[in-house]
From TrEMBL:
This is Hydrolase glyoxylase. It catalyses: 3',5'-cyclic UMP + H2O = UMP + H(+); 3',5'-cyclic CMP + H2O = CMP + H(+). The keyword Chloroplast does not apply. It comes from Brevibacillus choshinensis. Keywords: Hydrolase, Metal-binding, Zinc.
Amino acid sequence: MNVRLTLFDTGFCRQWEMFSIKGGRLRNIAFHAIAGLIEHPVHGLFLFDTGYSPRFFEATRSLPYALYAKITPVVTRPEQSVKAQLEERGIQVEHIKGIFLSHFHADHIGGLRDFPDSHLYCLSSAYEHVRGKFGLRALREGFLPDLMPHDFAERTTFIDRSMPIPLSKAHEPFTEAYDYFGDGSILLVELNGHATGQMGLFLRDQDQGDVFLCADAAWSSEAYRNNLLPHPIAQLIMADGTSYKENLTRLHQLSAHWPSLKILPTHCPEVWQMTQGAFAWRL
Ligand SMILES: [Zn+2]
């Protein structure tokens, strides 16, 4: 079943280019954090991640969390939060039925507490990895506990507690996914590596065709097209460097044999361009 995807730019952090691509330069570039609105014709409105929001600044006011804001200086305005961008178009937060969380880094869960009634979906391994972590232990995981709703566990479905289905040949080398609605519209795939239990999402947009929201399994489209690992220093912050490499190679192979599939890394400048064009707001 086809859905409709809209991408939102929620702000950016500044980072050296060399971190994202081996051979990249020592120049500052903007890493935008993109979130997606998915309109399902039967089940309603869902989000893929929640990007940055001004809550990031509150959550990093004191040490040790303030180090996070020092390492990745964030630029986001209140009107860039997903909540504000939805409301601007007449959609209230209570209209969002559910949120698929790729992983728990602050630039993906920044707006989570703006949606107190939405159901949440993630892989159990992702949550178990950050659950109960505070202070430096949280910071090491890129996790800001203040961004989490206190009733997280009660509102969450751990999708890997259901049985995966085999994927079609077109999805190779990805072989299985969690078909959340049972209609093939939202296929959730484990993308471990960048963060423990990271997940991506396949969908078919009614106008743009097949899409794979791959979160941070690659930091740019150039990286998966050419199978380029980030700088070794950036690889040090990966939860699992071996899995990261394997999944980047899988993305590379997928992009090679399925060229019409749009693989969208959250922080890719080309994806940011799409927020201004093809996938921009169109409800
Ligand atoms: Zn991340």
